Amino acid sequence: MTSRLPRLGAALVLAATALLVTSCASAAPEPEPTGTVASTPTPTAPAPEATETEAPVAEDLTCDNMILASTIADFTAAGWSSQAEPFYIGALELPGGLLCKWADLEGPAGDHLNMYGWAPISTETAEELQATLVGEGWIREDAPQGVYITENPDTAMSVDDQGYGWTYLFSESDVKFSNTKQGILLVDWPKG
Fold this sequence. Notes:
alpha+beta
């Protein structure tokens, strides 16, 4: 009779080996890919439907948007307000233009005020007005920004640090105005 013990031992050894091989196989790390890896395509969101967008609404020219916002804040803090008027050069009113006077309009009358103006203008009208002003003694100064026409400092009521009084800046399509040449830098129109 053969002993069952060696068979039982052999069976246990085989079972243990199978268990060990199975556990090692499942714990083994996956090999790192070498070369091209096929990827699963990810679904993409459908393209948004084309919708009509509204065109930006153009602002209307006002005293509250013609000049720099920081300047308006300074004027307001000082108690100043604005008064809007049509834009004239001499006796000619420029359609679409605006002249703004900033001062303490509620206080006593005084000479402390700033004026700013802007208007669209044709080349022909600009050339005619420049010639008229120069003919009246105003001074022409060509610059990269356009043509400055300023009142004669000898007859001006007040001038800035550089000797400029009322000044117009004519560009290709518009004209800016201030009671000083330096003030023209504050005219921030048209926007954009």
